[in-house]
Design a protein that fits this description.
- It is a single chain.
- By secondary structure, the chain is mostly helical.
- The chain has a domain at about 50-115.
- About 55% of the residues lie in helices and about 0% in strands.
- It has helices at about 30-45, 55-70, 80-115.
- The two termini are about 15 Å apart.
- The structure holds zinc ion (ZN).
């Protein structure tokens, strides 16, 4: 399912909505606060917007470290440790994909802004949105 957000130019967002959500990572209303914080932080470091879900990644790293320690201390069996490591691997891939999709969307948005500014999209709607049904 596609993200339900409508962008400033009136175009529908092209990113895929997150699972069980109506919006993509970049437009998820539930993440608006987090986004504002991140945007502010990104602005402070140059505004390239990279590494958005930083908090989530840090969280996963902490949890993984705990799992490793538990396996080492024999608090967790190697079987359980192995399953957990697989699940964390999947989780990391999901986070990475979300991040990439958000990055791509941001790039597309910037490109469209540039194109509009240069008058390349002066006639929006004429062949400019092949996806809209
Ligand atoms: Zn979106």
């Amino acid at each position: 399912m596609r993200c339900a957000a409508i962008k400033d130019g009136g175009e529908r967002c092209k990113a895929l909505a997150m699972e069980g959500a109506t919006h993509c990572y970049a437009h998820d209303p539930r993440r608006a606060d987090e986004r504002r914080r991140n945007a502010k932080r990104a602005g402070e470091v140059g505004g390239n917007g990279r590494g958005r879900p930083r908090g989530e990644l840090a969280q996963v790293r902490l949890e993984l470290r705990r799992v490793i320690e538990d396996v080492r201390a024999n608090k967790l069996g190697t079987g359980a440790g192995s399953v957990l490591s697989q699940l964390y691997g999947t989780l990391l891939r999901c986070i990475e994909q979300e991040r990439r999709s958000a990055e791509l969307e941001e790039l597309v948005e910037r490109l469209e802004t540039l194109e509009r500014a240069r008058g390349l999209r002066s006639t929006p709607g004429r062949g400019a949105r092949p996806w809209t049904g």
